[in-house]
Design goal:
Helices cover 18% and strands 39% of the residues. It is an alpha+beta fold. Strand 9 and strand 10 form a beta hairpin. The N terminus is likely disordered.
Amino acid sequence: MILSFLFIPTLAATLSLTSTNRVLSKLAYADEVQDAHGAQNLSVQTYSTVRAPEQRSNLLAEVEFRKNSTEVTQEPVALQQQVKQSSSTNAETVLNQEANSMLQAVYVHRKPPQGFLSPYDALATMPHNISEYKHASGNWFGSRDTLDAHGVEFSATYTTDMAGNPVGGIHPGGFTYADNFSFGCLVETEKLFGWHGGYFTISSLQRDGNSLSQKNIGNQFTVQQLYGGQTFHFYELSYEQREFNDHASLKSGRIAAGDEFASSPLYWLYMNNAIDGNPQSIPVNGKFSAYPNATWGSRLKIDLPHDTLARLGIYQVTQTSRHGLNWDFYPTDGVMLLAQYGWNPEFCNPSQSKTSSSKNNSTATSSSKKNPPLKSSKNPDTPLTSKGLTGHYWMGGYYSTFEYAQFNSGFQAPNAYGLYWHADQTVYRPNPLADEGLVLWGVTTLCPQQNISLLPFQVNAGAVYTGLIPGRKDDFTIFGVMYGNFSTTYASIQQQNGNGNPTYELVYEFGYRINMTKFAYIQPDLQWVINPKGTGNIPNAVVLGAQMGVVF
């Protein structure tokens, strides 16, 4: 790049003749090159100068040296240039043609040998401030890139939930924290030893802290999603095989159903455990395995036509292992079968409407095979850059052969089942080239067996706005509401025991996630817990808290 700027003034000099006082001004060029790590757009530059034409020979020699000393690995990038001529003499025409050839030779991109970066490429990809780092621990002096090139990726994250209840609950004025430190390794077998489509994952975690819901509020929907299994867990040990350009994959090993079924990235933004991860009624009612507890399992994922997809899973149902290291099978274990079908549409995409209009109005052009139109990543109407209103709709269900304890009997009840429906839709996007906008979402679960399901019916809904505050395009403003009905059988037993008559619990949550860097965030959070535990005997609680996370 620096060498190119040294060439430009000299090149412009070759376009002027000493026999005249005219200036061949404003040699404009626009160039887009592909570096070792991605596209870089070069700005349009303008040069106007008068130099001695004898410098032309030096420039020609330099260009010839570059052409001979470096192997050309891709075709010259198309250059848009315009030379204003004040004379049509043959001499100037020849000079202009030579200048154009030199520009193409100078700006042709040559990739460095595999595994190496030129000093200019390395400088361009190097983080220049803390906000550009993807990990708090940095790049390990280049070791991360080396490991990634060989298909090995290490990860570590720390997350904490802090919460207090200044008002309401069984003991107002409490404060607790819960945290989760996870670490893992992902191995891509193709990079490591040439096996296409294979991914091996191993991970574990450590949890500590206490629950504000248990100690101070007494409600069902725990206000800190990180509480549960506060000890060391060996979590995942799995192998995934992807085929057909990643349109189909089979994953098996020690995995959790909650990572693959009834889960959305939108849920992960919330601090209340009624939403985060999975709707709480599913793991509570059916012993549906979810983080941080894994079991033996296998799932098949297939992308289908028309933006649809299907997932099938089979998982072991067993008593929870305290540290995740009991991998045995027992006669009392059951099997959970899951199925989920989804549709991921995109509405009002500017590129789609543009493409459709172009096809209808320019049949001759679109059908031409001799001179196809050039594609440019700068065009805002290309599918690569413009975004429509995306949505995700899915429904699923589970059936378990495990035997469950009944509320009104000392006997076990075999088999359990449940259904769930989810929808999220981007309803507003101010700029089709950016990710800012408003997403509305909702999920409903139905587990109708009143004798074994604590929460037979649950509804969650919310809104997520990305980039609501100007200048904070990566921040999330979240709102959520969660409602759950308690089992009538469970309620009657509680009433007989003098514990009230549980009916429903309702929680509102509002938060703002500040993504300070690519690897760290903080999220102030406010929750209002209404009718804790559903009995009406516990005062409504206000919860002030925050989530923080760091990726190492």
